[in-house]
Amino acid sequence: xxxxxxxxxxxxxxxxxxxxxxxxxxxxxxxxxxxxxxxxxxxxxxxxxxxxxxxxxxxxxxxxxxxxxxxxxxxxxxxxxxxxxxxxxxxxxxxxxxxxxxxxxxxxxxxxxxxxxxxxxxxxxxxxxxxxxxxxxxxxxxxxxxxxxxxxxxxxxxxxxxxxxxxxxxxxxxxxxxxxxxxxxxxxxxxxxxxxxxxxxxxxxxxxxxxxxxxxxxxxxxxxxxxxxxxxxxxxxxxxxxxxxxxxxxxxxxxxxxxxxxxxxxxxxxxxxxxxxxxxxxxxxxxxxxxxxxxxxxxxx
Length: 301
Prior knowledge:
Elements: H1 2-26, E1 39-54, E2 62-82, E3 87-94, E4 98-103, E5 106-107, E6 120-125, E7 131-134, H2 147-153, E8 167-176, E9 185-204, E10 207-226, E11 229-246, E12 252-269, H3 278-282, E13 286-300
Antiparallel strand pairs: 1-2, 1-13, 2-3, 2-4, 3-6, 4-5, 6-7, 8-9, 9-10, 10-11, 11-12, 12-13
């Protein structure tokens, strides 16, 4: 009886110590450990559905639905790591993708070309993971690799250690400097607020990964004026999903993300404007509403 009581007392005192040690073991420091010459291949799949409502013609709005699905492989090569300049240069090279359009509920038998086929872009990022700048392929926003999702995959990790349940938030306000061209003035701005939460440390294939939940809101506007046409556009984007980061290197091992985009365009016509063209005078004022749902998965091969 005395022996059992002694064991029970020891367990009472030892349990908090074991629990505390377990908590310390669960803490991780997320960081990038990219090396020049690292070359990874990813497989990307995407589903896209766009609902368009055009209210410019009067009467009932014209409605149209466009759906597509596709996939593409791309390589991510680290071309430079400069500690003194605080930057990493990464080349992303795309293969040939397959993108299929839906006609009603039927998938087209022949794929259409994508804006990314056999092209490449160069990304420059801080050692912390924040993107400095990136070259964007023309038309990329309407291709398989979504630019917002690419930007959010390269997350700026926090300085402190994390344990399951911890979150960190990043906010950016981005005035978009778009030069006037052919008498058309454009004013645009985009704000991004993203919240990352460490859910757990677990295996994904052969990799020990940080499983991270992402929630992001993107608000933007774009005002365009020229030749007697004024277009005011507002956009709200919501992105959520999971990302698995390799603990050893910081590379993305797997990501599964959904993106909802709501865009509203209000078009006004000033036919008496001194630079109004015949085409602009014949344009129809009114509202265009676009709702788009995009699902993207990225997996390291």
